[in-house]
Write a structure and sequence with these properties.
alpha+beta, six-stranded antiparallel beta sheet, globular, disordered N terminus
């Protein structure tokens, strides 16, 4: 099966699905509801960050807070939702502090797995996620898959291939463990769903969505430092039920998950904190 280009549409889990035919309106009300939910969830994280900034820097309006987030996002080449998550998640600076992170020690990025480093090229955040997805699909011999990041208490899709818009919008945000990716996060381990049609991992709505998409099996790999929080998940989707994977495949996937997890942790503690430091300087200078 040929692969579609890797996309970064904010959606989650994933597979190829048949788009509704023109004139087929049976799915339209449900689809409209899903799109509304996605907009609300995307807005909620940014809105929470705006509230934090208004309170912390005594800003005059949500628009002023949003402008500060947007300028910082553009200046530091960091996605707005990732910056918003950091504003909410990271403890704020001391009152009247000139620097948010005084004395912070910087360190070099950890090595990426074989196959990912070659794909990543300049080692930008998006390139690393893209290379990770390709590597996992190579190991699992799948043509469909996606990468999600853990932000604002949810999994948010960042990269995908072989997935239709209908399906990726359904799984744009995953908030619970009734999916393979959600289970991989909650249990911090690889999760294989050998047959979507009969598994008890999925809730009914998710089962209908994946089967409609043509996905009969899924394997999810957590991206995490050993003993640390899961920072993301990469999942492969398969057109036929799975028997399982060899010990060598599972070992390689585990190594990929841990190495990329270390890289994501480095990114959070360097480039994301750089963005917060810039935001703090801009906000205090403006004050």
């Amino acid at each position: 099966m040929s692969q579609e280009p890797l996309d970064s549409t904010p959606t989650a889990s994933g597979c190829r699905t048949e788009r509704p035919r023109r004139g087929d309106t049976a799915q339209e009300p449900q689809q409209a509801g899903i799109e509304l939910r996605n907009r609300q969830l995307a807005h909620a994280c940014v809105a929470r960050a705006q509230d934090v900034l208004i309170d912390r820097y005594r800003l005059t309006s949500p628009q002023e807070a949003f402008d500060l987030l947007r300028r910082t996002s553009q200046r530091l080449n960091l996605k707005l939702h990732t910056l918003a998550d950091a504003v909410i998640r990271v403890p704020g600076p001391d009152a009247d502090a000139e620097l948010w992170f005084p004395g912070r020690t910087r360190y070099s990025p950890p090595p990426l797995p074989d196959g990912v480093a070659e794909e990543a090229g300049d080692a930008s955040h998006g390139a690393v996620l893209k290379g990770t997805l390709r590597r996992v699909l190579h190991v699992t011999q799948a043509g469909m898959g996606n990468v999600q990041l853990a932000e604002c208490g949810m999994l948010r899709l960042e990269k995908h291939t072989g997935l239709s818009r209908e399906f990726t919008e359904f799984f744009a945000f995953v908030e619970d463990s009734t999916t393979a990716c959600g289970r991989a996060v909650s249990e911090s381990r690889q999760v294989t769903v050998k047959d979507m049609a009969v598994t008890d991992v999925l809730d009914d709505d998710s089962r209908r969505a994946v089967l409609r998409a043509g996905s009969r099996a899924c394997h999810s790999v957590p991206l995490a430092v050993r003993g640390g929080p899961v920072l993301g998940v990469v999942s492969s989707h398969h057109e036929l039920p799975l028997v399982g994977f060899t010990r060598a495949q599972l070992s390689e996937l585990d190594a990929v998950g841990r190495q990329v997890g270390r890289w994501l942790a480095w990114h959070r503690h360097t480039r994301v904190l750089d963005a917060l430091e810039y935001l703090h300087a801009a906000a205090t200078a403006g004050g």
